[in-house]
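Ligand-bound model needed. S-adenosylmethionine.
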Amino acid sequence: MTEHTGRSYEGKAREYARKVDTSPYNAYYERPAVVSLLPDVENANVLDAGCGSGWYAEYLLDHGAIVTAIDLNADFVALTEARVEQRAKVLQADLSQPLDFAADGEFDVVLCPLVMHYLKDWKPPLREFHRVLKSRGVLLFSTHHPAMDWKLFNREDYFAVELLEDDWKDFGKVTYYRRPLTAISSDLASSGFLIERLLEPQPTDEFRQVHPNGYARLSKNPWFIVIRAIKGPK
Ligand SMILES: C[S@@+](CC[C@H](N)C(=O)[O-])C[C@H]1O[C@@H](n2cnc3c(N)ncnc32)[C@H](O)[C@@H]1O
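Prediction:
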């Protein structure tokens, strides 16, 4: 079991849900990049790990996937259930613990957008992702870009894995872990994953139209990173 800061969303799920579908950082930056690396999901078994209010679960269903969506937070589970109705299996589960609901080799794809930075030690969840994926299955995730947190928080030691406390405008305090790119890459490798693609997204034109200042910042500064990794031998 690994420590996590997923409780940052306790009592805030509805507030998050109200904004996330249309927030330019999600709609015109993170999601286009993640979707661009998603394989064809028609008839694929997909685990949406840390589903939040269910935008990705709905997208996957609309593109023909068979979806299991999980989240730590009961309010997010309820929001995703309401969104997808009976079309997906939606469960409350903690990514810091074994994924007992899933059989070995059950999934073609594990999708984990903007979740991994809430986990201190990535090895236990990556081990579980490796177990539940089929051979050559795809792990696709986005997370904070290591350079962003290091620069924004002006941290002394880039190579440390450390807890940060942030205060998001109109949302409140959120804590998460910062880690160097080396830690991301070595945890993936030691868990049996081969990095196939790595994206440092650029904001889309729609972003520029709705939020020109944010667009200017993201055009010149890394914010999130998106990685597609393939299950290889351990
Ligand atoms: C920034 S939200 C992202 C939600 C969704 N993936 C999206 O892109 O809209 C982070 C999500 O990770 C979930 N989370 C954090 N720690 C978790 C854990 N240990 N196990 C399962 N879910 C977790 C939170 O409850 C929240 O739904």
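The mean pLDDT is 96.
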